[in-house]
Structure formats: C-alpha cells, structure tokens
Amino acid sequence: MSKETTLDIAAVDAYLKEYLNGYEGPLEATKFAVGQSNPTFELRTPNRSYVLRRKPPGVLLKSAHAVDREFRVQQALADSNVPVPKMHLLCEDDGVIGSVFYVMEHLKGRIFLEPTLRSESNDVRTGVMDEMNRVLAELHMVDIDAAGLSDYGPMGNYFERQISRWTKQYRASETSAIADMDALISELERSIPADDGQRTLVHGDYRIDNLMFASEGTGCIGVLDWELSTIGHPYADLAAVIMQWQMQPGTEGRGLAGIDRESLGLPSDQAFIAQYCKRRGLPGIQNFGFYLAFNFFRMAAILQGVYKRALDGNASDPKRAQAFGTYVPIFAQCGLAALGKEL
C-alpha cells in the first residue's frame, strides 16, 4: 500500500464524525496498491479500521465506476449465504471529496492473488477452490426478490445487452483499430444463445483475487469488488473463472495455463464446472465456448478503458494501466479461439 495524496482526509474525517456511529478520529488513510477501477483506501483510527471506495476523479464513461451499486448489492447480501463486508455508509454528495464514496468493514484475512496458490499445501488448494465453487453457486441461488434486488438489472437477454453495453464502452475508449476485436464483436452478436430463463445475481468479475479467505482454514469471509454486478445470466460468472485460468501463471496473467493441476490439488476446468452444476442441480452446460468468448471480449473492453484512462491521466495506477493496453488484442484473439469450444 502507498500513501495517498488524492483523498481529502480532513473532509472524510469530518463526514464520518457526523454520520458514522461510533467513529472517533484522528484518521489516517493508505491507498491499496491493487485495483485499477475504483480507488480503495484503508482508513485507520486508534480504535478500528475501515475501507473506503470511491469513484476515480476526472471524466468517466457513463454507468462506469458505480460504487453506489456496489454498496447496494453488498448491503442486500448481508444476511445471505454469500459472505460480504458490512456496509457502513454511502456518500452520494460529490462535494465532500469530489466523487461518490462508501465506507465498509475492513475484513482481515487472506487474498490469493493467483490461482496456483503456490505457498499452500495441496489440501488447502483443494479446499480453497471448492469454497470458491460453493460461494459462486450460492451467489447464483440468492432469491433476488427476497433480497430486494429484482430491479438491480433490466429484463431481457443478458448477453444481448452486455455485448451492446461493452461494445459501446469499447468504442468510447478505442484508441486504434483492432481487427480481432471487431471480428469477436461480430461473432458474439451472431451467436448469442436463446434465453434459457435463468435470471440471477451475477458478480461480473468473479475470480480468486476478488475473494477474501479466513486467516486460517479455507472459508471465504468476503466477496469483494462488486462494480460489475447486475441481474443477469449465471454462466457469465462461471466462465469468468475458467477464462482466468486460461491465462499464463504469474503476477501478470494470474492463470493456470501449462500447470499440472492434478499434482497441485487444483481442479480441471471440467471438474470445476461439474461441481458447480451439481450444487445448482443442473444437468450440464452446452455451448460453453460462447460464455468463455464473451468473458474474453468483456475483459478486453475493460482493459481498453483502463488504458484510455491512463492516456487521459485518470488511472488509479498509471504505469500499470498503460501496460494493460497491450493485452487487449491478446484477449480478442483468445475470445475468437474460444468460440465453438465445449468443456
């Protein structure tokens, strides 16, 4: 983590004194190094710590960086089987620190930055992956009506609207023509599966480094980073996990490509999908390649947006964001290769 110069600590301190029960300063803030989208800070007082997430400064794409939606969905899940931090307050007044922000519980546990879990034993690896699978199934079994989330996303074919949305976002941040990206968009639009009636809460960026696990054991204590969440189709989340695993291992790709998973106690793609289907009572998933290709496309669009923000001077981590631009054509190529695959 690094000291932050863009957060008005005095303004946050004054706001929390007025609106957060039990809050007592003085306040210190440190920016978390991870996270390219919404700047995230640890807030420390002599008695306890909190986490603050805010919209980034500058001109933003419409509907992007919706921290108010993050707050709402996590608040709605407080009593569910999906572990989330406790939400403390949401500030929608841009005048306080220059953008909308919310404050939540500071969970203390472990975040695994890549799915190889190299420092863990085989038993821990197996347990963590099974817990990741269990929480994903629980997320997709949340009663959205009972949780007050039935209006959290529009009706209609989820993939139609997502492809349309991310194509618009991509075009708005496009810096040069990428032929494979254009081809992928066309192929996805042409091959959208018929709506099968599944309408669930989806996280939108479900992967190992967006989960926090207990300091001991393999229990998940928090699902984090809900910016892309909506009501949609559950296979998008499941395929997001498999997409991540197609990447190269290490701090950049953070995948499992070329890894002997069995020797490490890690599940195969097929085993992870089968266990998920078992938990949800599903017979299996046809045309999985489409869902995988969709995730490659969406990630390419997201990375293009991060790259554009770096060029505009609005990225949370400018140097790293600049490098993300090189990945956009790679993800587009992977998306084209995924179409038609069955797992």
Automatic annotation (TrEMBL):
Any idea where the Aminoglycoside phosphotransferase domain is? 29-252
Q: Which CDD domains match?
A: ACAD10_11_N-like (cd05154)
Which InterPro entries does this UniProt record tie to the protein?
A: ACAD10-like, ACAD10_11_N, Aminoglycoside_PTrfase, Kinase-like_dom_sf
Q: Which SUPFAM superfamilies match?
A: Protein kinase-like (PK-like)
Gene3D superfamilies, per database record? 3.90.1200.10, Phosphorylase Kinase, domain 1
- Top-rank taxon of the source lineage equals Bacteria
Q: What is this protein called?
A: Phosphotransferase family protein
